[in-house]
Write a structure and sequence with these properties.
By secondary structure, this protein is mainly α. Helices cover 40% and strands 0% of the residues.
Length: 75
Amino acid sequence: MIVKDLQPFSVVDDEGFRSLLRIPSIIIPSRTTLSRHHLVEAYDDVIIHLKARLADIDALGLTTNSWTSRSTQNW
């Protein structure tokens, strides 16, 4: 939910979120646990998967297109 809905990790500390999930069998992790442990684990899993998929590729090209407006907004 946090990644899919682009929510900050701090949402797990909100009273409304905790009330929503007030089920005895569920332990809600803190934002520190999410950012220091679960995010790191998810990142490591993605890196391993990506390296496996890219193992047989000889070359890779990446491009980017970005500009900044006069009001310093990136688009």
